[in-house]
Amino acid sequence: MRATWTSWPSREALSEANRTRPRKVITWSVRGVLIAAMLWGTFGGGRFGPWAIVAGLVGVLGCVVVAWAFFRTSLEHRLWPSLGLMTLLLLAAFGAREADAILLATLLWCGCAVTALERLPLAAALPVTALTLGVYAVVNTDGWFSTATTTVGLSLAGYVLRLDAEARGNAQRLLVQERAARAAEAETAALGERARIAREIHDVLAHSLSAQLVHLEAARLLIEREPAGEFRDGVLERVVAARSMAREGLAEIRQALSALRGEVSPVEDFLRQLVAADPAEVSVEGERRALTAETSQTVRRVAQEALTNVRKHAPGARVLVRLEYLPDEVALEVRDSGGVPGSELAGSGSGYGLLGMRERAELMGGTLEAGPAEEGFVVSLRVPV
């Protein structure tokens, strides 16, 4: 019971952001009519001099500004500032009454009574409403029946508006919760599908590569037992290279499976492991944070492809890998010092590696630029986080 008297209407109930277009049109139309009525109540009683007109306009404008401030402070659930602004409006009503602007004073009193019931906690709204309607009843000269009918009607109107706002606020909260539940359900379904795909890949491809590694290792041991010779050394070199490629492929598959399951290691750690055997340097800038699986995989694959191209077209070149965390995106730059003149990436190869990297970046809503620099070759990637 205590919470009923001291609790505010929810922010969803007080905010206009979630109202439908017809309701917004009605709200602003009512406000326009009220402002017009305030102007009529100020200037509709006769002729006024220039200074009186200016004073009346300033007064009406001040009331509008104070009312707007009250709506903001009540939306933020700030009680004392809201009561202070409401007091200013009541004082303005007394001033209008003294200036014989009876209609303006009546509008301010009635508006304060209804708005207090709609937007303030009941423990504060009821005294404000009782005070304003009591003052209105005292100064009103239309008779007791008309006065009583008006005060009861305004009280009911304010409370009905409060109930309507709370109903809309509750509906909005339920809608947000339902959307969040649907998003969580979709994410759970996506994770389940990723886990299924990861199991299929592991059962087929990873097992196949593991078996190949076993056979290649056995073949290497058998070949090493043979007498040394040109043919034997050539075959051994090929088998060792094939074993190395199978091991690298298995490691990449495991990384891809981890990404599908959402078990991704930090990108900076991956980059340091990637360049461990190269004359390369990795620098990380910006505030480090977790990346989505898609963004992380894009950065990893582009780094792998760029370093593969360096090893292929500029062997022995020094490489600088720079990862930067920006507010809305992550940037990767792979820059090499250049290799043998005439063997740079720009002048050789099919270019499908660069095309694949660019397509991967564009699918993520990012960009990739690659080309020769003053020294060597530069691959620059930017993808949203």
Could you please describe the fold and organization of this structure?
The protein is of the alpha+beta class and 385 residues long. It contains twelve helices and five strands. Helix 11 links the parallel strand 1 and strand 2. The chain is elongated. A five-stranded mixed sheet has the order 1-2-3-5-4, covered by helices on one side. About 3% of the residues have low confidence. It is 69% helix and 9% strand.
Features:
385 residues; alpha+beta; five-stranded mixed beta sheet; 69% helix; 9% strand
Topology diagram in text:
Blueprint: H1 2-6, H2 11-14, H3 21-43, H4 50-75, H5 79-98, H6 102-119, H7 122-139, H8 144-224, H9 230-260, H10 267-274, E1 280-285, H11 293-313, E2 319-325, E3 329-336, H12 352-363, E4 367-372, E5 377-384
Parallel strand pairs: 1-2
Antiparallel strand pairs: 2-3, 3-5, 4-5
Briefly summarize what is shown.
The protein is of the alpha+beta class.
Could you say which overall geometry the principal axes of the C-alpha atoms support? elongated
* Termini gap: 47 Å
Mean pLDDT: 79
Helix-strand topology string = HHHHHHHHHHEHEEHEE
Strand order of the largest sheet: 1-2-3-5-4
The main β sheet shows up as: 5 strands, mixed
Q: Count of DSSP helices?
A: 12
**Number of E-type strands:** 5
Could you tell me the strand content as a percent range?
5-15%
Helix content: 55-70%
Q: What class do helices, strands and sheet pairing give?
A: alpha+beta
Radius of gyration over C-alpha positions, nearest whole angstrom: 37 Å
Query: Spans with pLDDT under 50 lasting ≥5 residues?
Result: 341-350
